[in-house]
Amino acid sequence: MRNIMVIDLRVLPVLFHLRHHALMCRLHLEHLDLLDAMIAKLDAQIEEMMVPFRVARDRLMSIPGLGPMAAAQALGEIGTTPQEFFATAAKLASWAGMCPGNHESAGKRRSGRRRHGNQHLQPVLVEAAWSAVRHPGYLRSLYHRHVMKNGGYRSQVAKKKAIVTVAHAIIDIIWHVLATGTPYHELGEDYFIARKDPDKEAQRLIAKLEALGHKVTVEPLVA
């Protein structure tokens, strides 16, 4: 007597549903493999095209936040000799759209939005800025300084303004690196602290404490 397998008809929709999802997963994975292959081909072509500009790209990669692709994109937009087209780093930053607007009337500033600029270069600079502020150095110190100046880390607006300031600093550095032919020189995370006048900073802190109702007596430190 043969064994007869009985299938509950209520299970069939579930089986078909699972089979459909398995097919969709295979198709998505095949699509991802295809995209990876396309990206690899494009990366190889970019590397081939960057051979004449490899020295300039390597110099740009000395700037925190700029990897091989970001450096290549920057070169593709501004070239290897930006000083021929932009007399100063400030002019390049303005062309790139990394300078804040300056709309004033009767002494009142109406808008601080960035000017429209190169729509291909702007995202690269902003992404590079976010990458740069994750590592110790001058650019992270600059970011922290401007975040605190604009409202602190709880303010999303303050962080966005600060990252634009860092992106502006990066395009400024790019101009100098390409114009001088020298790699980026790290100023250090203590740059802003080191450049302060000790006496003026002491007076500022004393005044701040006195404003809070404290009496301050300053004595020289005995070695």
Largest beta sheet: what is the strand line-up?
1-2
How far from one another are the termini?
104 Å
Radius of gyration, whole Å = 28 Å
User: Fraction of residues in helices?
Assistant: 55-70%
- Beta-strand percent range: under 5%
Number of domains: 2
Oligomer: single chain
Poorly predicted ranges: 101-107
The helix-and-strand class reads mainly alpha
Report on the biggest sheet: 2 strands, antiparallel
Taking all residues together, what is the mean pLDDT? 85
- Give me the count of strands: 2
Describe this structure in words.
- By secondary structure, this protein is mostly helical.
- It has two domains: 15-49; 54-102 and 109-196, no CATH class.
- It is 59% helix and 3% strand.
- A two-stranded antiparallel sheet has the order 1-2.
- The longest helix is centred in the first third of the chain and has 38 residues, at 12-49.
- The protein is flat and about 90 Å long.
Give the gist of this structure:
The protein is mainly alpha-helical and 223 residues long. It contains 9 helices and 2 strands, in the order H-H-H-H-E-E-H-H-H-H-H. A hairpin with a 2-residue loop joins strand 1 (103-105) and strand 2.
